[in-house]
Amino acid sequence: MSILEVIQLEKRFGGLEVLQGIDFSLNQGESLAIIGSSGSGKTTLLRCLNFLERPDKGRIIVNGQVIFDADDPSTQREGEVRKKRLHFGLVFQSFNLFPQYTALQNVVLAPKLLAKELPDFTKNKQSYFNEIEAHGRTLLDQVGLTDKLGAYPHMLSGGQQQRVAIARALALEPDILCFDEPTSALDPELTGEVLKVIRALANRNTTMVIVTHEMDFARSVADRVIFMDEGVIVERGTPEEVFGNPKEERTRQFLARYKESN
Amino acid sequence: MTQLPMIIQRLSESFILNGKLFALTLLFSIPLGLIVALGSMSRYKFVQGPVRTFVWIIRGTPLMLQLIIIFFGPGLLDLPFSWPGGDTGRFTAATVAFVINYACYFSEIFRGGIQSIPSGQYEAGQVLGMTKPQIFIRVTLLQVIKRIMPPSGNEVITLVKDTSLARIISNKEIIMMAGEYTNQGLIWPLFATGIYFLVFVGILTLLFARIEKKLDFFKA
Q1: CB contact under 8 A, A114 and B129
Q2: Which residues pair with A9 in a beta bridge?
Q3: What CA dihedral angle connects B104, B108, B109 and B112, to 10 degrees?
Q4: SS3 of residue B81 by DSSP
Q5: Which end of chain B is more exposed for a tag (fewer CB within 10 A), N or C?
Q6: Per the CB < 8 Å rule, is B128 touching A92?
Q7: pLDDT over threshold 80, residue B2
Q8: In this predicted model, what pLDDT tens digit does every residue of B19-70 receive, in sequence order?
């Protein structure tokens, strides 16, 4: 059963149509790689899923529930959106860690704030917080940062910061974890450690949408691949289909350009 | 020279007025400045426009002139409002003028600080399900405070010395007091007032250095 369905999504900035008629679905436990050149709309698509941009048309359905419908303003109210965006987690290209918090604090801040909204919070504050902290430690352990719990972001390398950001996104246990070019801001020698963490997530059947320029990584990790160009999905399929035997001329050109530049 | 202890005492007493004006101005102009900053960043043009025009007028005219207008304005314009009589009225009018003036300067510092926070910080808070107030208080506020500390320090130091402008509406602050001796042919009390300002600013400089050091645990 598909966990995510995107139906006829459209987004324009002024006169520029950034997304046109985007349709796709994703099954529980699958990872989807979105590839395409800069300006193809893939980051905008990810931002629409996370409610950082409001699509002009279309619907987004998670677990059978319509969480966004451009024609239904009741799905767009501020308070509603805040809850609904928690279906998604987002890892940014530029990490966006909170500089005044340690690695662990970055991971536990949002869960703690959300716990405060629970009806029995005042009674069980300490046990909630202990639980959240323990979970945060486990997550940082999973991304290989056990010894960096108390480090502030500026003390960490880019790769370490991005791994904290991944742990932070995982802390809220999103249904679908999105990555927006997670290694593009990293020095080449640091991309490996981040890709390794994402690969481990894929092996544990985390549902993911990964916007990436790392073609080899997309090919080996993704269950499905979408190639976007100028705001439309040009081609989709398994990695073997899209990378091994692309049907569309635009896909072939893009992959050829990519091979040349490497 | 037998006058020395008495002159020192009178200068010190008059400097209390500078200190009080300084403290009250900071106390009220910082929160007011934050409100003005939010107004000047409002997405509603009918809020942003007037607020920015007001800031332009206040920053574009001398504080000395503003003191005179605020103190004498109500009487000259026959407004139904008037300042209390005597020293209280003069001091209150001076405080109001200073608060308005400094709120406008602070508002620009705050605006700069708030707008310098990368949008990624807000977006990271949003995708983590935080409310707007939570993002402001938990995520951006401390970063803003860290960034505005150096320019705020500048402003606070300027305020110390600006308090002497209150004499234009006959508040008996330290320079006005020293001026009375100058009129009698005694010039050194006027020079001595510099020491008061220097010491006060010195203390504030140390204080700001300490705050900045305290905020040094993170980079933003």
Answers
A1: yes
A2: A22
A3: 170
A4: coil
A5: N
A6: no
A7: no
A8: 999 999 999 999 999 999 999 999 999 999 999 999 999 999 999 999 999 9
Residue of B nearest to A107 (CA): B128
Structure tokens at A92: 């940014």
Select from A90, A152, A172 the Cβ nearest to the Cβ of B218. A152
Higher-confidence residue: A245 or B107?
B107
CB atoms under 10 Å from CB of A13, counted, come to 11
Cβ atoms B144, B112 nearer than 8 A: no
Place of tokens 């332009």: B56
CB contact under 8 A, B120 and A94: yes
* Among chain B residues, CA nearest to A169: B128
Q: What is the ipTM of this complex?
A: 0.91
